[in-house]
Amino acid sequence: MDDYGTESDSDYTSYWRDWFISSRGNEYFCEIDEEYLTDRFNLTGLNTEVQYYQYAMDLITDVFDLDCDDEMRETIEKSARHLYGLVHARYIASTRGLTKMLEKYKKADFGKCPRVMCNSHPLLPLGLSDIPNLKPVKLYCARCEDTYNPKSSRHASIDGAYFGTSFHSILFQVYPTLVPAKSQERYVPRVYGFKVHAAAALVRWQNSVRGDMRRRLRKMEVDSGFKDGEDDLEDEDEDEEEIDEEEELQMQLQQHQLVEYRGGATAATGALVPVAAGDAQMGGVA
Length: 286
Ligand SMILES: [Zn+2]
Hints:
N-terminal domain of TfIIb; Casein_kinase_II_beta-like; Casein_kin_II_reg-sub_N; binds zinc ion; mainly alpha; 52% helix
């Protein structure tokens, strides 16, 4: 993959794209391959979205040779940036584009999650709309599964449609091993070391609901994404579940032994039943 990238990039020096992605504020963008840009299939429908489409495309691919005034040049330049963004949203969902964005993600080019408990987990760009000029780009943390505003105003004004609403989900579908374990560490407010009553009650309630959910998922054999034994609650839940199962087993044994007792076979089975069942036998007889 990487060899392919370096080859095609070094064979062709892309002045405009080089300039564009190295410009301040454009750090979120990756370089779109020449090959991708010249495949008309990838550009379907964009000619009606962008003013002076062909000139803009010529500029992006460094074949622009129109003799025009500065004003016109500026208009085409603006169109080229818009066109690049729109193609970018499609490109980063392609195999090549995903690889390039993955490299940037690993280098934390999109910043790190500001949430303390996320331990500087790298962020991914996210569009809240696929339609241009509606919502600026936001950042997504896969660890806390929340979204954030970019720190820099340069980044905060980039159109979210240049990244799209699906990119981060596609990335994790293609690279499922990159999905981080769910964050369970939570901030608990305290006053001089004592938990604040209302907040603590809420956390307990939320934890019990989450416990129920995880138990249900486990029964359905659905992976919840939580690391095993990551919190104490999990163990508590398991204990509870075991108790439930034990109680049921005891009841079954009681009935079984009662039947056997009536049949006069208790002495023979007595040595084989475990301690818990032995207690049950006592209860059953009494
Ligand atoms: Zn986070």
